[in-house]
Amino acid sequence: MGRYVIRRLLQMIPVFIGATLLIFLMVNVMGDPVAGLCGERQCDPATAAQLKREFGLDKPVWRQYLTYMGNVFTGDFGTAFNGQKVTELMGTAFPVTIRLTVVAIVLEIVLGIALGVLTGLRRGRPVDTGVLLLTLVVISVPTFVTGLLLQLLLGVEWGWIKPSVSAYATVDELIVPGLVLASVSLAYVTRLTRTSLAENRRADYVRTAIAKGLPRRRVVVRHLLRNSLIPVVTFIGTDVGALMGGAIVTERIFNIHGVGYQLYQGILRQNTQTVVGFVTVLVLVFLAANLLVDLLYAVLDPRIRYA
Amino acid sequence: MLLEVRDLHVEFHTRDGVAHAVNGVDYGVEAGETLAVLGESGSGKSVTAQAIMGILDMPPGRITAGEVLFKGQDLLKLKEKDRRRIRGAELAMIFQDALSALNPVLTVGDQLGEMFTVHRGMSRRDARARAVELMDRVRIPGAKERAGQYPHQFSGGMRQRIMIAMAMALEPALIIADEPTTALDVTVQAQVMDLLAELQREYRMGLVLITHDLGVVADVADRIAVMYAGRIVESAPVHDLYKAPAHPYTRGLLNSVPRLDRKGRELDAIKGLPPSLLHIPSGCPFHPRCPMVQDVCRTDVPPLYDVTESDADRGSACHFWRECLRG
User: Fold this and answer.
1) Testing the interface with B: which of A212, A296, A300, A303 to mutate, by most B Cβ within 10 A?
2) Shortest Cα distance from B89 to chain A (angstroms)?
């Protein structure tokens, strides 16, 4: 087990280098990074050249990358062009996005699994068909449509929520945005739980549990559900990373100043340091989430061994 | 009678039509007695067992008629709640493939202990102690340590011992064993069968042993019920049946067993295939494959005749059981 974890951590290194290099190159291709620094006007060539020298932008790309990575390892993610430290931006953005993600994951687990169990145990009944249809709609409609629609209806028309989230981004403000963020995954969790449950329902060990004279509730929860949720947990685990990165659209709609918002601003202003820094951290979160899921998998299913 | 099945009918509604899996089965088991139910796949032996246990998948299955009297009480008329209390505690079942019949993600100690926590309201600690005792009882070496292991960490024979321990846990009056040794190696089969027979004698349990293996039956069973197309075609004490079968199907089964004294000669197989349960032949369902077939067999369903020429309690569903008995 220990060796497995070490091997997995070592495997992260090339993935990490590859991912950051790719982002670094892509951001470089985006355009001239000093173009936006002189206000509305174009920088005069002399100033531009001086700025470039100052930021080390006259050096070849690979040198820039090495310098940047060297700094990252000392905890220096550089300075955004507005003078703020990127780490400072992260310090304000990440807590907000983490809160949003937690709200989304909780909704996904509670609602998704509950609906999945409900439909899985009542296959072919009206509840099942209804929920299935609903998940199909949610999956096929893009998040920005669901988001804007909910904002318009709940926020503007009916006034149940504030249409935009305040700077504090408290948990109760994030419930509707969290629902929007989670919606597609929630629909998948519902379907996955339903299918997995229906598949395991006819399993021999469930028949044994019934033959043992266990109460129905115990048969379902302890025997059927315990086995059926293994693939669901895997899905939710990998979704953590995806949700954090995927919050861009949701954060834009509800004006939440989180990671997605900062990334959007960074790209818009061709702010290399911000974009690369944030994405680097997201890559790390994603890798860590994946490792955790794989380890959790072995805990849930004793048949799986890592060596 | 400990268990008495009377005129049981079970059908399955499938896309292709109604499959008549069980068509009027009668059998009985006394306390301490072993009844072997013999038959090919699809003869209805397992479905009958599932109907007795109340673990039939309904739908698609449906019990259309009959009674299952257990200690004089018709199980089919009981409420699910009362039936559940009997299941596992008074009436237990051993399944064929222990690997798939045990829950892969729970330790065997937990799965055994569950019997005591649920039915007897024991604490988890006491239940675990009883689970270890049970594993000892079925002679699993190192029971205490192994109780914390998962089913996949055991060998096939050990797993089947755990299934037996689970069925035995609450000392039920009757155990139904559905092909308990089919999935095992031949050497292990004998050990498991001996263990089961030993425990049955010790606790004076009734045992319904479902099998298609004639070798297993001869050693342990008191009576045999032979099933074909969802019916009992012959029912007899084991020695009488082996000595002189009173049904051509039983005769065919006995002749199809490889024997040392007939080495080198071709094996007698029963011609044809078992009937489709969707289209059971008219008259005697065995008539298309029967070497003794007469016109009456194609039209009249034979009842289970009393085989009066024997002192023992025997029955045969053949119009010509006398001729068959004489060979």
Assistant:
1) A212
2) 7
What is this model's ipTM?
A: 0.87
- Cα distances (Å, whole numbers) of residue B168 to B30, B90, B93, B209: 18, 10, 9, 15
In a domain, B154, yes or no: no
Q: Does B150 touch chain A (CB under 8 A)?
A: yes
In a domain, B49, yes or no: yes
Contact between B95 and A208 using a beta-carbon 8 Å cutoff: yes
Alpha-carbon gap, residue A204 to A209, rounded angstroms = 9
The verdict on residue B287 lying in a domain is yes
**What range does the domain containing B316 cover?**
3-98+174-326
Does A187 have pLDDT greater than 90? Answer: yes
- For B95-182, strand residue ranges (E) read 174-178
Q: How far is B189 from chain A (nearest CA, A)?
A: 21
User: Are B100 and A202 in contact (CB < 8 Å)?
Assistant: no
Question: What phi, psi does B64 have (nearest 5°)?
Answer: -95, -25
What CATH number should be reported for the domain holding residue B189?
Answer: 3.40.50.300
Instruction: Identify the closest residue of chain B to A201 by CA–CA distance.
Output: B57
Given the candidates 1.10.3720.10, 3.10.20.80, 1.20.120.610, 3.20.20.80, the CATH classification of the domain at A87-300 is: 1.10.3720.10
- How far apart (Å, rounded) are the C-alpha atoms in residues B181 and B193? 7
Reported pTM: 0.80
What are the angstrom distances between the C-alpha of A153 and each of A58, A135, A174, B132, B306?
51, 20, 16, 61, 80
CB A174 within 8 A of CB A103: yes
Alpha-helical runs (H) found in chain A: 2-29, 45-55, 61-73, 86-107, 113-120, 126-140, 143-150, 175-201, 204-211, 216-218, 226-245, 247-253, 259-268, 272-300
Binned at pLDDT 50, 70 and 90, residue B131 comes out as: very high
Query: CATH 1.10.3720.10 in chain A, residues?
Result: 87-300
Chain A contact set for B114 (CB, 8 A): 212, 214
Query: Quick one: what percent of chain A has pLDDT higher than 70?
Result: 94
A169 close to A192: Cβ distance less than 8 angstroms: no
CB contact under 8 A, B119 and A213: yes
Q: Is B93 touching A (CB cutoff 8 A)?
A: yes
In a domain, B7, yes or no: yes
Q: Which one, of B299, B318, B282, B210, lies nearest residue B20 by Cα?
A: B282
Domain count for chain B: 1
Question: Which chain A residues touch B112 with a CB distance below 8 Å?
Answer: none
